Amino acid sequence: TQNPGAPGWAREGYTSGSEASSASRDDGTSVRGVGSNFRRDVCGSIAAMRFVLATFGSWGDVKPFAAIARRARRIGHDAVVVTDVWYADRLRARGVEVAGFDAGLDPDLPKRRPEIMHRWKGTGIFFREVLSPALAPMYQATRAAIDALGADMVLCHHVAWGAMWAAQEMEAPWSMAAMAPASWMSLENPNMYPVMPDRDHYRMWALKLGNAVSRRVVRAMTDGVANRARCNLGLPAQRDVMLARTFGGHMNLGLWSPQFRGPAGDDHAASHVTGFPLESPDAEPELDPAIETFLDDGAPPVLITLGTSAGAISSEVPRMVAGVCAASRRRALILVGNRESLPREMPPGIAAFEHAPYARVMPRCAAVVHHGGVGTTSEVLRAGKPAVIVPFAHDQFDNARRCRMAGCSVTLDRRTLNAARIQTALDRVTDTATFAEASERMRASIEQEDGLGTALSLLAPSPVAATATSDGG
After folding, report:
1. pLDDT tens-digit series, residues 157-189
2. DSSP assignment of 7-74
3. Backbone phi, psi, residue 95, to 5°
4. Which residues face 321 on adjacent strands?
5. Cα(424)–Cα(434) distance, integer angstroms
6. 263 has a pLDDT exceeding 60
7. Residue 265 binned pLDDT confidence (cut-offs 50, 70, 90)
8. Distance between CA atoms of 380 and 442, rounded to whole angstroms?
9. Please, what is the average pLDDT of the chain?
10. Alpha-carbon gap, residue 129 to 141, rounded angstroms
11. CB of 180 within 8 A of CB of 399?
């Protein structure tokens, strides 16, 4: 009997895991129970699958999972996204089924606690103050989604540990998806962490020492957080939750372009680099008419955007870049991220808006100044635009280094940022042909990739997963 008060994904005829082993569809196809790998149709072929996609963090962490869900449903699979209720309306507006949990996610936290974007303290603060209270409700919501959907696969964001634990406890197949290369430690293809200098190459002894220290630091930051939550859930303690346990599922997906960071020989087993999980620009909302008017009114502008979290704590960087653009007679378009940050007055040729879909606005800009978040970075690379990157925290330093090494950007240190350095960097990326050429090569390469299709073909290796190569919204 269906519960009329249950969420949509739990009412639409899905069979719970306890019932699925003996249930059948009207057309005679069997419905798999939790714990087996795939459902099969009456001819024995692999049939459509049921995905639970669990994610947590900023919109940049949620949007890729929404894109995977949309593609999965469009090609015949079932999918529900488990995430904080803060994103529920936004996801449902995109046609995504949501199993929400309330972890008290506060979009104003970066304003109240700007240390969350501190160069080296920020990641620890995120684990302790943002992720920790989310793990138990995430666990419960994922268990409910697995039970309601009869999940064939649970795909967990690399910090969605509560979802991973739920899948393990219910013996449901699960996989991990990492958003940025910094989540995959490697000596062969090393990452740059916030305490490291920005170099093209690092000495092997330094890398080995750095990795050993980093592992101890990560364990200290994460194992205590994870095990307090596990204790409250009645689960036994674990070691190396972030660095080992999350890589112990069916497979590990790196949701980035192989041109950004290719596979490495020392990656964990069953690791695959899929390409960026980007939908077609046609899937994004139309541009605000006022932005259209500004773009049409002159030369392509410099786009200035710091994403959700960095944008909330720093109005100084966009103001400084806009001042440089005004002084050098460059047009600039600022996306501030929230209405409260909109400036009251702007110099001629400078415009500010709350937000705009990157996939529609970036191709019409001359260059982009941004913070190095992987979601923003992927859109800049897809648009083929040179960039000036000012990283703040977390994986942003590694993303900036990889763009710089690809010849697509210049990195500026926020601690020493001034008008002269911004002017020099903008001159380099807009006036030097090598930056435009490298950015165009990256754009052409990413255009040939299908990160969403690749991810689904790995998770659901069946003919149904290969029927779509683009998304029309």
Report:
1. 999 999 999 999 999 999 999 999 999 999 999
2. -HHHHSSPPPHHHHTT-B-TTS-B-PPBTBS--B-TTS-B---EEEEE--SSHHHHHHHHHHHHHHHH
3. 80, 25
4. none
5. 16
6. yes
7. very high
8. 10
9. 87
10. 20
11. yes
Contacts of residue 212, defined as CB under 8 A and 6 or more positions apart, other chains included, come to none
Distance CA 363, CA 352 (A): 18
Separation CA 81–CA 155 (nearest Å): 9
CA atoms within 13 A on the CB side of 319: 9
How is 273-339 classified by DSSP, letter by letter?
E----PPPGGGSPPPPHHHHHHHHTSSPPEEEE-TTHHHHH-SHHHHHHHHHHHHTT--EEEE-SSG
Closest CA to 454 of 284, 282, 272, 247: 272
In the block, which residue shows the tokens 């005829």? 13
Give the mean model confidence (pLDDT) for residues 224-247. 96
Three-class DSSP category at 376: helix
How far is residue 24's CA from residue 260's CA, in Å, rounded to a whole number? 44
Q: CA angle 191-194-200, nearest 5°?
A: 45
For residues 131 and 240, give the distance between their C-alpha atoms in angstroms, rounded to a whole number: 16
Q: Is the pLDDT of residue 372 over 90?
A: yes
Q: Classify residue 42 as exposed, middle or buried by CB count within 10 Å of its CB (0-12, 13-18, 19+).
A: exposed
- Give the pair of three-digit tokens for residue 356: 């705009």
Q: For the CA atoms of 451, 453, 457, 459, what is the dihedral angle to 10 degrees?
A: 60
CB 175 within 8 A of CB 253: yes
